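Example 5.3 — Putative ATP/GTP-binding protein
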Amino acid sequence: MNKTADKFGSYSKDDVIFLLKDLSGYSLEGSIEQREKNIQSGQHYSETLPIEYQPPEKYLSLFWETLDVYKRKTALSTGAVSEQIWKQKGKNTVLVSLARAGTPVGILIKRYLSEVYDVSLPHYSISIIRDRGIDENAIKHILNSHPGCEIQFVDGWTGKGAISIELTKACRQFQETYGVILDDTLAVLADPGYCTTLYGTREDFLIPSACLNSTVSGLVSRTVLNKSLIGPEDFHGAKYYSELEEADVSNQYLSAVAEEFPAIKQEAAELAKGIMDNPGEASFKGMEEIQRIQEEFNIESINFVKPGVGETTRVLLRRLPWKILMKDPESPYVGHIVMLARERNVEVIHYPDMSYTCCGLIKKTGEKS
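Solution (predicted structure tokens):
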């Protein structure tokens, strides 16, 4: 089985171990326009990579301002979800974050539990891909390394819930194939789509790590599943963008949030208790809104509708955006989105009739703006 290179990504191995095949030597990137055309013509998005967007200085300044404003809120959501994981699974937990948006969140959860409960839980980051499933080789590696462990899957946030659905499907398939039951409950900082019962908040707020690409995620690319490069015994793949080291803020981001843990731990425990006492169901209630938006804007595929602050940011960073819907264009959570939309000449529409803070719509290739 092809393991990850000894040095993969800019995180310490004490924080996370990536179970990914190193594809750094391969050219997988294409222009946003060409990649979008290929995806809409049937190529799966996991077979290639977008060119990593390098933001201008004014956008980076906005990132640091955003981090300063929301580091406490991010820490509180981290603490709340960490407390729930600890109460439910305890020392037997192995954190398994879904690369790459889940990776910094998994590290923050690991650091919170170390700070508050003086434990060092194992943390791995693995690949899950919509319509392709989870990396079963990585799961088997974890189970072999930690017999009798309880895996806790971790991601950053929910949008429509596509990854939550994919995870449930993958866990069911893993049980059918190997006879091993995995808990498909996904732990996230923010669950505006009501896609899980294990969350820090259901507010669609700005998690600062959503603002950037690899430079806030350990310099690791999106994950890749391309059969010409990934064999049946391999982990899914990814690239390590070592050439971007000068722009990397991954560890500063973690430190800024983790510094808030001592101040918020009591409030986080109370918040967690409130959620556990009344978690609400995973109703996927956001899906009704998404379907309404799809019909209203005559959008061919629901995959072209990306709700929530995190997903809207991703549309602007690495897809071909058509329009951006905003519940409140004056919201403090959307300043970076307004800036990106202006830079990419994308129309922003005031759209108050939705529960999400914003929603990104992807352009159908061949259409004019």
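Remark. The chain has a mean pLDDT of 93.
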